[in-house]
Amino acid sequence: MYKIPTSFYEKTSEWIQSLQLPLEQVPLYYRIIYPAETRSLPDIKGYDGHRWLPVCSCDDAFVAVIPNGRLATSNCYVVTPDNKRLRDLEYDCPPMTLTELPPPIHMKKTVATLVWGWNLPHYTTRTHNIFGHWFFDILPRFHLLEESGIPIDHYVIGKLHYPFQYESLRMLGIPMDKLIEVEELDFHLVADVLLAPAVPVVIGKCPPWASRYIVERLKHNQQIPRRRGFDRIYISREDAVMRHVANEAEVIGMLESFGFRKIVLSPLSTAEKIAIFSSARTVIAPFGSGSINIAFCEPGTNYIELSPSNVTDNYFWKLAGHAGVHYYEMICPIERPDKPVPGMDNIIVNITKLKRIMRLAGV
To answer: In whole angstroms, what is the distance from residue 83 CA to residue 302 CA?
Structure first.
């Protein structure tokens, strides 16, 4: 039996340094597709104090080329030939009781891994099943692999469950017969050549190149027409399991008087979401994965995010900045401050305050 490695390199670049390669040979094992960059984005609008600096920094976006590289467990830990894991290609998952693996399946081919995050069979919320992670942490890795120029025989990916996964893969032109779907806890594979692309959220939380790729391939290349009657939209989380707007009926009543339409995203296809957000001029939404669709908005659109007071996350500000969308943050108190569960709490929207921000946005 094989043990799951407990030794690791914190960064893939540390593994490259350990190889002590001549400088000209480094790209054979570590291909930088987009160099590290730092840029300023438009400032946050609204009446609340700013909770982060207006700077967007991203590390190198790379593809690691690992001869005889292994993937271990359902989370597909990337393991180097010297039996160490690459930590910057992992996510801190719940403790795994499994410590041993069967001998690996040997594939005499070039295999690329797209698994990142929680992929445990007994967890209903696997990372790649979360709408936002799928579109901005999984799909952009196809782009890095494409840009590497290396022909790929198979892609390893978590077990697919949702229509948005199949639809987006089809829109990107990814051959389904090349996918190896993983859900076995004791999955173990070794490839003649293993390719491991950087994870966008790890190297910069929505880098500009990831946003450009998604918009270009899913919006512009598909030539999805806009839809009339969606100038002003409110995104409801009534279909979500957590982080609801406690006084949503009151919020919707006020917004409808200003011509807003309530949108529930989960029943819609990817193409429908792109069409609706491309048509919007003002979007109001509570913090959540559905807001990744602001990437498809036209420049100059207003986006008002209803943010929980106990969660500080600049993800959607970055996404708005890349899209040329005006970002307004409205910090909202949580429903149960006596029993907070950060990231899961319901919020309460102050109607008067929201109206003030709407006026500021020209609504």
So the answer is: 49
- Beta-carbon contacts of 284 under 8 Å, excluding residues fewer than 6 positions away, are 233, 234, 235, 255, 260, 303, 304, 306, 354, 358
Sign of CA dihedral 229, 230, 233, 237: positive
* Cβ-based burial of 347 (10 A; exposed 0-12, middle 13-18, buried ≥19): buried
The model's pTM is 0.94
The closest alpha carbon to 330, from 46, 72, 129, belongs to: 46
What is the C-alpha separation between 245 and 242, in angstroms, rounded? 9
E strand or H helix that includes residue 157: strand 154-158
**Of 130, 86, 118, 102, residue with least CA distance to 182:** 118
Q: What are the DSSP calls for 221-246, one per residue? A: TTTPPP-TT-SEEEEE-TTSSS--BT
What tens digit of pLDDT does each residue of 185-199 get?
A: 999 999 999 999 999
pLDDT single digits (tens) 221-253: 999 999 999 999 999 999 998 999 999 999 999
The overall longest dimension of the chain from CA atoms, in Å, is 67
List C-alpha distances in Å: 359 to 19, 258, 281: 59, 11, 14
Q: Are 67 and 15 in contact (CB under 8 A)?
A: no
